[in-house]
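SEVERITY: medium
COMPONENT: batch folding queue
REPORTER: lab tech (J.R.)

DESCRIPTION
The queue accepted two submissions in a row. Attaching both inputs and their returned structure tokens so the on-call engineer can compare them side by side.

ATTACHMENT 1
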Amino acid sequence: MKLSKTLITTAILGFSLASFHSTAWADTPKQQFQQGFEATTRGDYQTAFKLWLPLAEQGNATSQFWVGVMYFEGQGVKQDDFEAVKWYRKAAEQGDANAQFNLGWMYDKGRGIKQDDFEAVKWSRKAAEQGNAKAQFYLGNMYADGRGVKQDDFEAVKWYRKAADQGEAAAQSSLGLMYTNGQGVKQNDFEAVKWFSKAAEQGNADAQANLGSVYRAGRGVRQDYAEAVKWFKKAAENGSADGQLKLGLSYLLGQGIQKDRTLAKEWLGKACDNREQDGCEFYGKLNRGEL
């Protein structure tokens, strides 16, 4: 049973209005920060930048973090990874967990700074130890892959679980995969289904594809091809190459859904476009009339 692993790609923390608090403050610096927040709600990032930059230069860690985000996103200022790293570092050195995670991510990707797995782990660990769920998931991935740290499935599970318990969907999906494979934890299909389900309900495409796979195989749940197709379809529509492949094969074989070679070809083609090699092979065979 082939399953999908959730990877860190664009997990860097960016603009989210939920990250701000709209409480009115009495003192001037906090009022100034609040005015910047209000500007972002209007899409006026230039004004927000002008309000936050002086605060950042005065040493306000929260403002330093958001100035870094604005440089990274190119919102309100010209995009500049080097400036983003500069401001993330200032905030990170003051203990801002979001900035610590973002700085670790920049080291991981080599954006605005030389790529360095060890520095990536160092800063992500600081954020993870403060309870930052994305950093905990990221640190779990680094332990699972042995990047910047000695490979250790038990440590990977430890950090995945911390993030998963906070509702981090990617970590829930990865924890489910560890239970499926018995890596760093005793193999348990029921626990795998539990965590895949939590992540899938949040819209995690890899978890949706994996949940479809366990329903198709009947591992940890009663075998149900129709339920498998339901989750393959969700995953496929969310851009999962594995979900697209398995949905295409379901249409081809008529498993849990009516046979439809046209739709099979469409989804296998999408999987191929998504660099899923098996999708390319099946798509080619369908085109050549070999299936």
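ATTACHMENT 2
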Amino acid sequence: MLKKDGKLFGKISIIDIAVILIVVLLAAGVLIKFSGNQNVPVSSGEKLECVVQVKNVRDYTVEALKKGGPVFDKTTKEYIGTITGVTTEPGETTLLLNDGSYRNVETEGRYNAYVTIAFDGKESDGGYYTATNKQMAAGSSLGMNAKYSQCDGTIYEVRHAQ
């Protein structure tokens, strides 16, 4: 079987077999590493929307948000969706009173904006995801760059678009 020159059956070197075996094992390892089940949907297609609460912003920020346009994640610069609506309520500040109690009072010239963003995404067991696999969950923060403004908010609600 093994000849004097180190070849198996006189044709294949043992070193050649070892190299081929190592290459096959490395390819299998890479395939397993990068094709595992990650529980994150990679496809999108459902029409979803989220409402982001942006607290205590000035009126010109509200007006800039009302102009609509695309929204991008502030950190990753990935596209999230499009602003479809903005509602407001007076902004509030919590004050500590002399008797030790707290009271919410309206802040003049400040508003809480509720920004509705429509996006294509997917719902899975882990929640809602954008087309770029960013998780959109109520209570999580969202830094957003809109066409005419930049602000940080908290995701208030995520739902299927109506």
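NOTES FROM REPORTER
The longest strand covers residues 102-124.
No errors were logged for either attachment.
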